[in-house]
Amino acid sequence: YVVQRWWSPVLLWAGGATLEVLGKEHADPRRAAIYVCNHQSTLDIPAVFRGLWPVDFRFVVKHPLKYVPVLCWYLSLAGYPFVDRGNHAKAVASLAKAGRKIRGGTSVVVFAEGTRSDTGAILPFKKGPFALAMEAKVPVIPVTIEGTRHVMPKNSWDIVPGPVRIKVGEPIDIAQCDGNRGALIRAVRDVIIRQSVELGGLGGDANAAIAARGQEGIGRAADEKQSA
């Protein structure tokens, strides 16, 4: 509550970011869901916190953050799910735990690219968030962020005041993909690409939908894309 209501708007204000949220009606606080976002900047975190208010959610966070002083205390006490992507068995167990949290009524937000985009173009998506959706059996809601890369660029301390826009897409029922994780990834990513263009962003390569295993920002070979 404190992070969503106070910390996030103060951080956006301090960076000179003005936030506009479109499609807010799709962020229903009464319905647990997985919100899948693109990732442009560190500023995405407070932007999403504020943009999805009053949805009760937790980010899926990388395991190394569990050892960052102060931050780790907050993440642990607030019940954020940690995912160790370097250990497949632990990653699967973490996703199962996150699935139980979602079924208990708490939504989850994931940055499906696994890293911030250098250019702002939508990168290939990791498979983990979509395995989580199928584990939890809840809708996936595409969320597109545009503008944070200009306010707070990746690998830079320069802050340039400017507009930040978020568009929340319609929920996607995982049943329509008939258990095909690859089809779900492509369906969600296609919406995010389209929304990126609508917001004035660069969109992305629709053919490079799924990230190569163990890699971020690199699509799988064409002959692998049709598999789940």
Describe the structure.
The protein is α/β, with parallel strands linked by helices and 228 residues long. 33% of the residues lie in helices and 16% in strands. It has a six-stranded mixed beta sheet, with helices on both faces. α3 links the parallel β4 (61-62) and β5 (82-83).
**Termini separation:** 37 Å
Strand order of the largest sheet: 1-8-7-2-6-3
* Parts with pLDDT < 50 across at least 5 consecutive residues: 221-228
Q: How many individual helices?
A: 7
Structural class estimated from helices and strands:
alpha/beta
Percent of residues in helices: 25-40%
Number of strands: 8
> How much is the radius of gyration in Å?
16 Å
Biggest sheet architecture: 6 strands, mixed
* Mass-distribution shape: globular
Percent of sequence in beta strands: 15-25%
The chain-level mean pLDDT equals 87
